Amino acid sequence: MYNFSEMLTATEIAKILKISYHGALDFIKYSGVDYIKIGNQYRVSEEKFRAFLSQKGKKIIPLC
Q1: Rounded Cα–Cα distance for residues 62 and 41 (Å)
Q2: pTM, whole model, 2 decimals?
Q3: How many domains does the chain have?
Q4: Whole domain around residue 20: which residue ranges?
């Protein structure tokens, strides 16, 4: 179950990863991280986001 007080927005993810807002949206949609969509906004559990980033051998490929 999601704890909505610990959900990250695309803007927050962009700041954490030091990428653009649109880059964060692409990351959320195409990286495989679990997310929920509320209206036109994407939210990612902070716990799942950190677990996703810390997976051993996980490579993040830029979507230029």
Answers
A1: 22
A2: 0.76
A3: 1
A4: 4-54
